[in-house]
Amino acid sequence: MFIAILIIGILLRIFALNQHDFWFDEAFTYHIARLPVKDLIAASLTDNNPPLYYLLIHFVLKIGQNELILRLPSLILGILAIPLIYIVLKEQINRKAAIIAASLFSVSPLAIYTAAEARPHGPAVIFTLFISMVFFRLIKKSNIKYSVLFIFLAILSIYVHFYTLLLFLPFTLIVVFGKSRIKILKWLIILSIILSALIPWFYFSIQKIHSDCACPPTFLSLPSALVSPVIGGVGEFTLRSFPTLPLPIFLLFATTTLIHLLLFLKGLAQNRSIAFLYLVPLAILSLFGLFFPVFSPKAFAIFNPIYFAIVAIGIVSFRKSGLITILVIILLGTISLIQAANPFFAGTRLKPIYIIIKHNRSIPVLNTSLLTYYSLDYYSQGNQKHILITQNPLSIETLKFIGGQKQEVDPKSDRLWLVDTEKWTNTKDRESAIKIIFDKYSVEKTYKIDKISIVLLKIK
């Protein structure tokens, strides 16, 4: 049965590659990754993500710039994470829990989504698994081979995704209070080597102005992080939209979430080491998220395998674990199929907008929001001028590298495209910019895609 579930998980991930258009987060990846390596490193210093993933995509771009190609690293590493979950949990818990956790992860909506998005969260999952696997081997057999491998993987992981840093506190707690053959002094030396490799990056990074993280406060991030492995909702399409779902679908999502949370709570008490790996990072982010915008539920997806490991431990503790396993897999798989088939979950349709405007490539395109600006600029591939007419919330340092500063309209332009949406823009800034445009231009044609207006304008 596991092989069948694995195949279904792979097929769902492949299908998801083309389910949503190349939205802002992915377009941002592209605009950083296409820079020369020197500028890419400098731009990464202004971002809230480390450089290794951008470097990977930089070299992927040499193969092709199609959005499906840019998503391939996430797809490949996301698929490889499934058998790796099995290997890690078979060593640390038992074969039964390993099969259950890998099966659940295989059909998880969140795992499927991150495996089909050109962002570092999906690829970082496999690094979370690798360093966890080597750590548990290290504390059982403290030798030079595992020490060097752990240091190497740890440094690599942090330069892929900063949230992997959060694992080192639970690792330390396990070394100090758990069953570990590694001496505390040796562990401190290992940590010091890892941290020393990060000092140069952090030293230069703190001197830069960073864009604010679009992270909700803890009272929203915490519940989202706990339910997103089961029902997704961490991309452009968020959990805030879920109450608008048809009642039968909403009830299915709510019931599945409740069942998983109960199994999760059951599993927490069964294995302290695995519980630490999930709860300590969750607690740290929840605490700091009360004061700073640092808790991203989507970034927390790198701990998705640990969540399902805890759920699997909870399932195994029941006498009828086989029946429960089948039930939760069916529920999870059904949710993933619904999200794959229903356009409601696909997010803003950006490619149809590009198809409309590309027929008049000589006409500049005015954008009122980041939601469309960077994505349409990606689709245009430099063949059409795009202008953002509202204030860009990204940092000035970042804009120096990827562009997107607020611009005025060239008064010599006799025709313009206006792509307008209220989403992700300052209302007053948008209304002021639109008023200036319509004072000088009249409407020639109007199109509507979702909640986005595409207007062809001609000078009065």
Characterise this structure.
The chain has 2 domains: 344 residues, no CATH class; 109 residues. The protein has 20 helices and 5 strands. The N and C termini lie far apart (67 Å). The model has no long low-confidence stretch (mean pLDDT 94). The longest helix is centred in the first third of the chain and has 26 residues. It is of the alpha/beta class and 460 residues long. It is globular, with a radius of gyration of 23 Å. Helix 2 crosses helix 18, helix 6 crosses helix 15 and helix 8 packs antiparallel against helix 9. Strands 2-1-3-5-4 form a 5-stranded mixed β-sheet.
Quick structural overview:
With 460 residues, this protein is of the alpha/beta class. The chain has helices at residues 2-16, 24-33, 37-46, 52-60, 67-92, 95-106, 109-114, 121-140, 144-160, 168-177, 184-205, 218-231, 247-268, 272-289, 304-316, 321-341, 351-357, 370-380, 396-402, 427-440; strands at residues 365-367, 386-388, 415-420, 441-449, 452-459.
Secondary structure layout:
Elements (H helix, E strand, L loop, with lengths): L1 H15 L7 H10 L3 H10 L5 H9 L6 H26 L2 H12 L2 H6 L6 H20 L3 H17 L7 H10 L6 H22 L12 H14 L15 H22 L3 H18 L14 H13 L4 H21 L9 H7 L7 E3 L2 H11 L5 E3 L7 H7 L12 E6 L6 H14 E9 L2 E8 L1
Parallel strand pairs: 1-2, 1-3
Antiparallel strand pairs: 3-5, 4-5
Helix pairs in contact: 1-5, 1-6, 2-4, 2-18, 3-19, 5-6, 5-8, 6-15, 8-9, 9-11, 10-14, 12-13, 12-14, 13-15, 13-16, 14-15
Distance between the termini: 67 Å
Shape: globular
The strands making up the biggest β-sheet line up spatially as 2-1-3-5-4
Strand content: 5-15%
Helix share, percent: 55-70%
Structural class: alpha/beta
Total of domains: 2
How many strands appear in the DSSP assignment?
5
Rg on CA atoms, Å: 23 Å
Give the integer mean of the pLDDT values. 94
Which regions are unreliable across 5 or more consecutive residues at pLDDT < 50? none
Reported for the largest beta sheet, the result is: 5 strands, mixed
The helix/strand series, from N terminus to C terminus, equals HHHHHHHHHHHHHHHHHEHEHEHEE
Q: Count up the helices.
A: 20
